[in-house]
Every structure is written in C-alpha cells, then in structure tokens.
User: Fold this.
Amino acid sequence: MKEGVALLKAAQKLDEEALTAIFDQFAPAIYKYTLRLCHDPITADNIVGDVFAQLLEQFGVGKGPRTNLRSYLYQTAYHLVVDRSRDSQHNAPLEVAMSNFAGGHFMPTQSQIEERVMMEALISAMNTELTDDQRHVIILRFLEDFSLKETADIMGKEINNIKVIQNRGIARLRKAMGLQLEEDW
Assistant:
C-alpha cells in the first residue's frame, strides 16, 4: 500500500518513471473496461490515451487524485465513454468484444462451444436489455471487481442507488437469459 502511495506522490510531481509505472499498471485494465463499454477497439484505445492525458493535465496544475488512483482512472474513463456514446452508437463484432477465441485457430470442445453460446447470449442481453447505468454497474461490479462504494464513486451516485441499479440489472439479465434459453430449445 505504501508503495502505491509513494508512486502516486511521485507521479503528482510528474516523475517520468512513476507516470510510466502507473500507465503500465493501469492501461490494460482501463482498455478492457472501455472496450466492454463501447465495443470498439479504436475508441477504447483513444479513451485510454485521453484518460492518461487528463491525468497528466491534472497533475500539471497541481490537481488529480490524492488517494485512490484506480477509482479516479476508471471514473475518468467512464465519463469519457458516456460522452462519446452520446455522439455515436457504434457496436463492434462480438469477437472483438469477447476476444476469447483468437481468430478461430483451434477446434473448440463441446463445453467451450456451450460456454461461448452462453457468453454470446449474456453479452447480447447486456447490450439490448440493460440500461446504460445497469450495464456499467454490472461491468464495474462483476467484471472489474469494484466494491459498491468504488462503483458509486466512479459513477457519481449513492451506494443505495448502485444497489438498486445492480439488482434491477441482474433481474433483467435473468429474465432475458431465461427467455433466450427457452427460445433456443
């Protein structure tokens, strides 16, 4: 923990090694998070660049995160994704979003096929059945492993609101997945 605090303090002073270490540590996770939200690898990559550009700008004027760098970076990414989603509603192919089966260079087993079908149904349900807030809460809570408080901080909402959004989102996913499974049989 002290190592993280020392790294943040050095980065606040625009120490190049600290800034590089922060980028190396957080950029891959921020990229995966933004890709899950926007489904476009180019947009996700641009947002990662913008997140770290804003961090540098904030440090340059003596502002920026003082304690929880991870939450700050995710919050910045979240707001950038929301801003960009207002401009366009582009969706990339499912293979880009999943990136589990890299170019189909192997023969999947029956269980891998079943898992992929379930994953496709879940992703489809998340994209079509959930509100933007529900999708973001589900991603932050269950794919990015943020706590309720961290999710609330990132989204700028109260913890109780996050609980309600999460519960409604899970209920909608259960309903959608149940309907999807019945239709497939």
